[in-house]
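In keeping with the milestone schedule agreed at the kick-off meeting, the structural modelling team has produced records for the first pair of proteins. Each record is given below as a sequence line and a structure-token line. The laboratory manager (R.T.) confirmed that both were archived under the project's standard naming scheme.
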Amino acid sequence: MRTDGGGAGHVEGGQRRGERGILRSSFFITMMLCIIMPRRLSRSRTARQDIGRSHTSRSHTNRADRLRSDDALSEVIGFILIIAILMIFLSLWMVYVVPAEGRQQEIEHMNYVRNWFTQYKVTADSLWINHDDDKSLTGITFSNSLVLGSQGGATQAGGLFLPVMSPVGSTGAIVVTNKSEFITINGGSDTFPLAILEFETTNNYWIPQSYYYQMGGVFLRQPAGTVARVAPLINFNLEGNDAAIVNISSRAKSGMSGQGPVRIDTELNHVTTGISGTMPVTFELRDEFAAIGWEKILKERRALAGLNTDNVIITQSGSTVLVYRPDGNNTLTYNIVELVVSVQSVASGIE
């Protein structure tokens, strides 16, 4: 699966048809002017020659009126030509410059969102990993600011020049949600929800994308599929298996949308460490794309541990991923981390 824009064809198809229509209109106007102007100028020269040769049938007054009429006609044609050139310039600007600039802005914004989620994962992990037995970090809150749109809520031009001189900024939404996903351990006796903190964008020039934080991992979701940008908190080894189940809930506002900045407050509510369990582990995910993304990252974690299918078997069917140990090392030590997230608006422009 490509994550560098390989799936952008279906997004840009409508834009390309509109661009071809604009170019056809500009070409038609230019050709009409090229046909009309030589004829009008030829008539003007012919009329001037007729005036020079006609000394008996026309008066000096009629000759002067015709000259003034030809001069006025030439000025009108010149003005129309200037308008046509301006239209061609604006058409080319709209077809090539505006989409390219908007695409670059949205790519840079999605890279910013990716880095934001990576930093969020590092901060959240550090908080609960450093949580001691005395629960000294329980109730600690860390805050992050996130800009939702590619132009950060900046004022855009209005009226006639809205789509002409600059691209339209994208919008985004961030929300704490649960897509009916959960993890089952201990042979199906214990089930835990897999809630997510998700950012979803509405891009105008780039591929629709969303990033989400789930079970300590960062995932990228787009029309071509889902891929893990940062691995979730699950490990395999010869002696057993380790995992951290991150349960995310919301307090106050669970989400916001728009273009400007928002503040995400995350509180470490509770941590339970060193729980003993057993394999197999079953992941029930939102759709097949999400399941394929989880299957790939789990196989990467297996390879990183130097194990193979003799030790850990990972299978994916529809929206379900099953992990079990044929070598008999079914011990699973896991932690339960409870995070409470709230989303607040940030007033911009205040000194």
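The second protein of the pair:
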Amino acid sequence: MAELWFGLLGLMLMAYVVLDGFDFGAGVLHLFVAKSDAERRTVLAAIGPFWDGNEVWLIAAGGVLFMAFPEVLTTAFPAFYLALNLVLWCFALRGVAIEVRSHVTDALWRHRRQLTDRPVDRACLEGPVIVDFHLAG
């Protein structure tokens, strides 16, 4: 019976990864592919009907983990508590960002700029890379 639950858990996680990969891909590519605000809206509207339903697979997999493998859940959840909470907050904020984007009309909100335009952004991006190379070498 454990093999059946393990297979079901694997199928649910695989369904989530495949289906949510479309959302992540559209979210990342719309910054580079879409040149105008109308094109960005079109790309984000393409994932509109799906992005809510994709997390259902992740929640269902958590339910299967809770029901079929409680020892794994009680061992893994405290160990990855911070990481799991960060992922859940990011999921929630991603949904809010997609919904709120169409309601805000301010030009500053829609201004498209490079991530490295400001020195603070550049330091946050390049600092960890430099430290990693220094520690690795």
